[in-house]
Amino acid sequence: MSTAEFDAQVRKLATRYPDSKTAILPALRLAQEQNDGWLDTESFERVGEALGLTPAYCKAVATFYDMFHLAPVGRHSIEVCTNLSCALSGAQQVVDAFESELGVEPGETTEDGEITLRTVECLGGCGYATVVSVDNRYRQFVKPEDVPAIVEDVRAG
Amino acid sequence: MPARSMLLAGADERDLTKLAEYQAIGGYAQASRARAMTSDDLIAELQGANLRGRGGAGFPMGRKASLVDRKSPKPKYLVVNADESEPGAFKDREVMARAPHRLIEGCLIAAHAIESQEVFIYIRGEYLTEYEILAKAVEQARKAEILGDVNVVVYRGAGAYICGEETALLESLEGKRGQPRPRPPFPPVQGLYMSPTEINNVCTIATLPAILELGPEGFTNIGTPGSPGTVIFSVSGNVEKPGNYELELGTSMRELLYTHAGGIAGGRQLKAVIPGGSSVPALTARQIDVPLDFDSIGAIGTFFGAASLIVVDDRCCMVQLALRSTKFYMHESCGRCTPCREGTRWVVQLLERIEAGDGTTADLELLRKVCDRIEGKSLCALGDFAVWPVQSYFDKWHDEWVAHVEQGGCPLGGESSIEGIFAPSDQHTHSPVATVPA
Amino acid sequence: MSSPELVTVTVDGREVQVPKGTGLVETALAAGIEIPVFCYEPRLGDPIGACRMCLVEVEGLPKLQAGCTMSATDGLKVRTAQTSAKAADGQSATLEFILVNHPLDCPVCDKGGECPLQDLTFRWGPGNTRMEFDKRTLEKPIPVSPTIALDRERCILCYRCTRFSEGVSEDGQLVAENRGASSVIATFDDRPYRAPFSGNVIELCPVGALTSTQYRFEGRPWEIQNVPTVCGLCPVGCNTAVTVREGKVKRVLSRNHPEVDEGWLCDKGRFGFSHLYAGDRIADPLRRVRQRGLEEVSWDDALDDAERLLRESEGRIVTALSGSETVEQAYALGRLLRSGLGAHTAVLPEETSPALDAFRLPLSAIRDAELVVVLGDEPVAERAPIVELWLKAARRNGAEVHHAGDALESCRRLSRAKDELGNRLRESDRAVLIWSSEEGAGGAHLAALARELGFPDRPGCGAFHLPRTANGRGVADAWAASDDGEGETPEKIGLLVVSGDEAAADPNVRVLAERAERVLVTSMFHGLAAGWADLVLPGTSYLERDGTYVNLEGRLQRLRRASIPPAPDELAWISRLAERFGVEVDPFPSAVFSELSAKIYDGLPFGEVGEHAPLRTRSEAPAPQLPEEPPAPKGEGLRLIRYKALFSGPAIERVPELQFQRPEPEVELSGKDAEARRIASGDTVQVSHNGHSIELRARVSRGLRPGVVRIASEHAGDLGGMVEVSA
Q1: Where does CATH 1.20.1440.230 sit in chain B?
Q2: Is the pLDDT of residue C165 over 50?
Q3: Omega within 30 of 0 (cis) for the link into C94
Q4: What average pLDDT does this structure show over C470-476?
């Protein structure tokens, strides 16, 4: 998306809110989508330009939240909840299974650049533990033996 | 008591994400009724119903609405807190996924009560599917001209537990870092964009259509006098049938855990119940014969909170649980106030040492003291939430802690159900800056 | 305005009565009790209750409350750490938590000895540490800019600096990144914090996290003296405290005059002092010797030369003043040249109309105004930086701030009967006009406008002309008062007396110098007058003078010598020269001032000018004299506004740390004009006029009106009038 298009889209969505600063979260999300899932220097400059904010401010806001990434990520994300309820239901074994299936540790991306594995805090599916968020869609009741199929599914696109 | 449906009523039989289906069971009729009332009368009705906030604090919703400065020349805002991030809670999600129109109808009622035409539903960023369902439902309602002159905006958060705190949510919604504000002033006077704001949890708002249908008397006949109505109890952890159970307030905890949730899974022993989401003091197995309502739970030294029960069986090491819990709060601390920001990190360091078997009796004393030093002094409740669990695990299962010191390690010897659980704060996400030495 | 309602508050058992709504910290202070704070700073906006240092016990509330977020209500009863063990424990807890990872840097930390963290720990904190783990470490120090260093380990995350950057200077460059215990203070991409007010964060920081690179390791608080004086680099005249160690100026701090600067300084005033020690500082008089350039001579010889130059010019003397002389210097020069030699002609870079005296207001009135109109296209921040801060404060306070470009045209428009904005100015009780432009006869047009709008009858309304010079008004009045005689401008200049570096660097003065037979210059630096002066006498800086200045408010303020100059003060040799011409001029500023004060300052004694000088109440003033204005440039293209950048001038050129703040070779355009020419920010463009063209970088500025472009004069070459800009 060209800068002009990005600008236009952000300004348009800013009209939904009484104050255009509120548009910063959706704008950052859009910039992240446009930049292969992460935010670099140019992303912050773009968002700042579109909303009349400094890039420093945009980055200060982005770094506060977990869903914005400041380093390159894989094309897909697999996030395993390891908070209390999922932990009590065997989340660590699920994490271990993903580690072994993907060959990476949490926080890392597979060598082919396809999948980033992360452990995350409570996703809001505690009664259906273990919850795994694949590209922001929840898989529930995940057991270690389900992992190979999930990974295959993700790789298939 | 049998299960009672107000929030999820009809959701099993029909697809209530569809406007027509919701209308078929009387949906939006209460909103029309409400709009025919004056805001004063409507608020009186809500106050009569004594609906206590379902987000965790239990503050009476009608009273909150009455405090909104309706005379102010500034626009009034209704903000729905759908940032459900409390570990153990997953009920708002179900309401939004399965009965979104009920939530929207509740918004219309509440908006009318405070003379607002702007509604923001702040939904946590991770709930992408629920966001789509809700946004679609809003659009359906808008097209069918049900919203009237009320504008409903569904706004996605971006991953921060602290944004579930009212004023932090408002800051986030204003496009800033989500850090809480000092209170007073409270949102009903100075809220979103410094304007009078009513801010409520999803379930609180979604209960409003039922209140209007039953009337204050009919509503207060359900549940207990101090805690009328029904609540969706989220049950998770080591039970046979974890899930959401909508029951009348006042149902006994034993009944919820054993009759509805099927008791402890795998035939194991109940060790602990954290009754209100992970942030509240835990109860022992001997404390579960208590009615589930705000006042009864408050009376036994913990909090009703978000009505989210995490059940722990005897395989779990309480020191490890404390460590995992505190790492969560350390990760989620917004960083504005000193005790929470610096204190939770110190508590984590002490817990790690104790769990590793390197702790001394002095460390145990120090840990308890540091928790006391954080308690009651932070800018918002997160500081308290971080230490209440630790204090309760420490006090009620003290033997385990002493055993860690005396045995130089975890007495469960690697067999704890959460052994090795890896917290996100252990991996570098986007803050590769500070190193916390062991 | 009705008097505020008083309420009774009890603090630690002491009753005190304060206006309702007074902050609790100030209320306690009124009762003689200190509530310790870190993050609380009223100038930064609403309190945020972050640090938890101010925890107090409030009767009726179970939990400790952050005192800084509370305000006085009737019957409020509060107990601080002094009488409440709970509050004392709370404050001790805060300090314990701050110190848990705070490095024990005191022996090498510049803040040591003047550090609130040290002081409060001593008073309220734990006696020793219970933290046995290794403290977390971070890379340090980090250069926030060439003038500011950041030590993240020391930072206690009180957020004062980020709140300043966002909410006072509104540059949004210093921010907090990450969350929780991983939070750090940062600039975007580690780029330098480049903004005119950045240095204020050094004073705001309550620990040694943000420190001045100039002051690094330069002194300890017990070895220094702080001299109370006033900055002389711009017409605002911010009150300063100059730190001196062993006779050398080491740093400049604010001395908070609530009406003038509110405790803020711009980076030029704060960091510019090192020009005193520039390598090319002139310490001895210099005489021109053919083929050998300038050679040093003794003062006796120099004075002889000067006498000779003055006599030989037979009264055909023109004096070029800088406008940065003290009032006393200008008066003394006037006595020497006018009374002693009949040389009445003086050239000032600009006039300052005395008609403005009828519209005097303190600068703080800008913040309290409801309607502000800025006339002119020159950026306020480049002319009088602190005024820009007052404007921002006004906006935050709810004032309406209008920018009316093309000062003279706007002036005409606003005085017309049917003009909407003009009418609102006529009706408002708190309206302020600000003139930020070269044109307008030194504020005469502004005064005429203010008069037309009825300001003299409304004490809450006022007008500020932003002059180019620091003491233009003071110098002009002092020169005028030095003698009653009159004279004509000589046709052929026998001797041009150039007083001060600003005059020496002025191209218009150079033109005069080329036409003069001889030139005598007072200058601080070699190189400014090298090629064209016959005699150069060493000059002094405002930091080295005792005397007075008159700022743009019309406020008379007292300068105090912070450092002894390498050569005698101007009054010393003016007095000796004057003797030779039969004029008595005292070498001491106090005496010179007395003589002058009797004539124009109602006999105010030198010693009573005041530490925080008051603004004399507005007086009846003469009607403004409106000279013919040259016609506005016309023609195709865009009107070029050349402006003197804040970070320019001989003093600033000699401060290495400030070079990064020098103006970029840029041309500022409005969005509309840029779009029409398909130019984006960052593009290289040609700016041309009459066949002459300069290459610059374009910058699109939302605040600029269409039809106008702005270039800092040092980058604008010979361009003027109407220009064309093309990619």
Answers
A1: 318-427
A2: yes
A3: no
A4: 95
Cα dihedral B345/B346/B352/B355 (nearest 10): -130
| Residue B158 forms contact with A (CB below 8 Å) | yes
Domain extents for chain A?
3-62, 76-156
ipTM > 0.95, yes or no: yes
List the 115-134 stretch of A: residues with Cβ below 8 A of B: 118-129, 133
CATH code 1.20.1440.230 for B318-427:
yes
CB distance A57–C172 less than 8 Å? yes
- Determine whether the interchain pair B87/A128 forms a contact, defined as Cβ–Cβ distance below 8 Å: no
Residue C633 token pair: 């440039």
- Is the bond preceding B432 in cis, omega lying within 30 degrees of 0? no
Amino acid at residue number C410? S
Are B70 and B117 within 8 A, CB to CB? no
C176 vs B: CB within 8 A = yes
Residue of C174, C175, C183, C699 for testing the chain A interface, max A β-carbons within 10 Å: C175
A64 in contact with B at a CB cutoff of 8 Å?
Answer: yes
Q: Give dist(CA C453, CA C434) in Å, integer.
A: 14
Q: A69 CA to chain B: closest CA distance, Å?
A: 6
- Euclidean distance between CA atoms C445 and C391, whole angstroms: 21
**Nearest CA to B198 among B109, B131, B308, B105?**
B109
Tens digits of per-residue pLDDT, B259-297? 999 999 999 999 999 999 999 999 999 999 999 999 999
pLDDT for residue C435: 96
Q: Are C456 and C486 part of one and the same domain? A: no
Cβ separation B342–C100 shorter than 8 A: yes
Same domain as C337, residue C358: no
CB atoms within 10 A of CB C58: 18
Q: Which residue has the tokens 């409520």?
A: B200
Q: Rounded to an integer, what distance in angstroms lies between the CA atom of residue B322 and that of residue B325?
A: 5
CA gap C411, C267 in Å, rounded: 32
Per residue in C108-144, pLDDT (tens digit) is: 999 999 999 999 999 999 989 999 999 999 999 999 9
Q: Which residues 250-269 of B have a C-beta within 8 angstroms of A? A: none
Amino acid at B195: S
Taking a contact as any Cβ pair under 8 Å apart, which residues of chain A between 21 and 50 contact chain B? 21-26, 28-29
C480: pLDDT confidence band, cut at 50, 70 and 90? very high
Q: What are phi and psi of C666, to 5 degrees?
A: -125, 155
Tokens 């505020």 appear where? C4
A65–B158: do the CB atoms touch at under 8 Å? yes
Q: What is the pLDDT of residues C678-700, one digit of tens each?
A: 998 899 999 999 889 999 999 99
Look at the domain A3-62 and name its fold.
Answer: Arc Repressor Mutant, subunit A (1.10.10)
Same domain, C68 and C140: no
C173 contacts in A (CB within 8 Å)?
Answer: 54, 56
- pLDDT tier at C626, thresholds 50, 70, 90: confident
Q: Which CATH architecture has domain A76-156?
A: 3-Layer(aba) Sandwich (3.40)
B19-220: which CATH topology?
A: Rossmann fold (3.40.50)
**All residues at 6 or more sequence positions from C531 whose CB lies less than 8 Å from its CB, including other chains:** none
For A21-79, what is each residue's pLDDT tens digit? 999 999 999 999 999 999 999 999 999 999 999 999 999 999 999 999 999 999 999 99
Distances from the Cα of A53 to the Cαs of A64, B36, B91, B231, in angstroms? 17, 43, 37, 43
Whether the CB-CB separation of C651 and C693 falls below 8 Å is answered with no
CATH code at C400?
3.40.228.10
Nearest CA in chain C to B331: C180
Percentage of chain B surpassing pLDDT 90?
Answer: 94
Q: How far apart are the first and last CA of chain B?
A: 50
Residue C722: strand pairing partners: C639
